[in-house]
C-alpha cells in the first residue's frame, strides 16, 4: 500500500502523444525503503502482506490501540480511499460526485491521524493532496481558489514541521505551477534539490516546467536525471518515456509549437 501522496505532473497539451500510462496522474512516486527505518514504515511492513477484508479488519482493529498505531492505521485507511478516488477520477474526472465522496472519506481519516499527531507529516501532505485533487474538479473560480488555498495550507504545515520534506515541497511547487505561479514553483523545486540533489520528483517537476517553457533540451536533461535517480520506479519510467517523446518531436519540428 502506498503511503504518500506525491503528485506527478503530466506534460503540456502539445505532448499528448504520451501513452495512457504516462498521462495518468498517480498517487505513487514514493520510493519504498528496502529496510523499514521509521515507525510508519515498520507498521506498513507489518500489514503490507494483507489484502482486502483482512487488511481492513486489521487496520480498523489497530485504530483502537491508540497512538501511534491508531495514527498509522487511520492514515492507511485514508490512503485506500484516496487511491480509489484517483483510480475513479482517471475514468470519470475529479468532478464526479462519487470521486468526491471518496475524497471526503480520505480527508476524514487523514484528518483524524493529524488530530492525534499534529506533526505527522505524511498525513499533512496527504490532506494537501486531497484538496489539490478537489481543486482539479471545481469549475467555479472562487471555490476552486478556496480549495487551492486549503491545499497550500496543508503543504505549508508539513513544511513547518520539516522544511526538508521533499514530497510536500514538490507538491507545493506543482500546485504553483498549475496556477502559473512560475517563480514560486521554481523556488520550491530548486529548494527541494538543495536538500535532496538526487530527488527524482524535483527533477521531474523541473523538466515539466522546461517543457512548458519550450526549453526542450533542458527538459530532456532533467527527465534523464529523474530517470537516473529513480531507475526502477514510476517516476523514472515516466521520465524516460517523456524524454523519448520530446526527442521524437524535436526530430520533427513541424510538430512542435512555434517559439
Give a verbal description of the structure:
- By secondary structure, this protein is mainly α.
- It is built from 12 helices and no strands.
- The protein is globular.
- The termini are far apart.
- The relative contact order is 0.11.
Briefly characterize the structure.
The chain is mostly helical. The protein contains twelve helices and no strands.
How much is the radius of gyration in Å?
Answer: 18 Å
Q: What is the SS-derived class?
A: mainly alpha
The beta-strand count equals 0
Write down the CATH topology of the domain at 33-162: Serine Threonine Protein Phosphatase 5, Tetratricopeptide repeat
CATH architecture of the domain at 33-162: Alpha Horseshoe
Features of this protein?
Serine Threonine Protein Phosphatase 5, Tetratricopeptide repeat; 12 helices; 0% strand
Question: What is the element layout, followed by pairings?
Answer:
Elements: H1 20-23, H2 39-47, H3 52-62, H4 69-92, H5 97-116, H6 121-136, H7 141-161, H8 166-178, H9 182-195, H10 200-212, H11 216-229, H12 234-250
Amino acid at each position: 500500500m502506498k503511503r504518500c501522496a506525491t503528485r506527478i505532473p503530466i506534460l503540456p497539451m502539445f505532448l499528448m502523444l504520451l501513452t495512457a500510462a504516462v498521462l495518468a496522474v498517480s498517487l505513487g512516486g514514493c520510493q519504498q525503503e528496502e529496510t523499514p527505518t521509521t515507525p510508519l514504515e515498520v507498521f506498513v511492513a507489518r500489514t503490507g502482506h494483507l489484502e482486502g477484508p483482512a487488511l481492513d479488519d486489521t487496520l480498523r482493529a489497530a485504530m483502537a490501540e491508540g497512538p501511534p498505531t491508531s495514527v498509522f492505521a487511520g492514515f492507511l485507511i485514508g490512503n485506500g480511499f484516496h487511491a480509489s478516488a484517483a483510480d475513479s477520477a482517471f475514468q470519470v474526472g475529479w468532478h464526479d460526485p462519487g470521486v468526491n465522496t471518496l475524497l471526503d472519506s480520505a480527508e476524514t481519516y487523514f484528518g483524524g491521524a493529524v488530530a492525534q499527531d499534529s506533526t505527522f507529516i505524511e498525513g499533512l501532505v496527504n490532506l494537501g493532496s486531497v484538496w489539490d485533487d478537489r481543486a482539479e474538479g471545481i469549475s467555479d473560480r472562487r471555490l476552486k481558489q478556496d480549495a487551492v488555498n486549503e491545499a497550500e495550507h496543508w503543504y505549508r504545515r508539513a513544511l513547518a514541521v520539516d522544511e526538508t520534506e521533499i514530497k510536500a515541497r514538490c507538491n507545493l511547487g506543482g500546485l504553483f505551477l498549475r496556477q502559473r505561479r512560475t517563480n514560486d514553483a521554481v523556488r520550491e523545486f530548486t529548494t527541494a534539490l538543495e536538500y535532496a540533489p538526487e530527488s527524482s520528483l524535483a527533477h521531474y517537476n523541473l523538466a515539466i516546467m522546461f517543457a512548458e517553457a519550450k526549453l526542450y533540451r533542458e527538459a530532456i536533461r532533467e527527465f534523464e536525471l529523474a530517470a537516473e535517480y529513480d531507475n526502477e520506479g514510476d517516476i523514472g519510467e515516466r521520465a524516460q518515456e517523456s524524454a523519448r517523446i520530446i526527442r521524437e518531436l524535436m526530430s520533427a519540428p513541424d510538430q512542435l509549437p512555434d517559439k
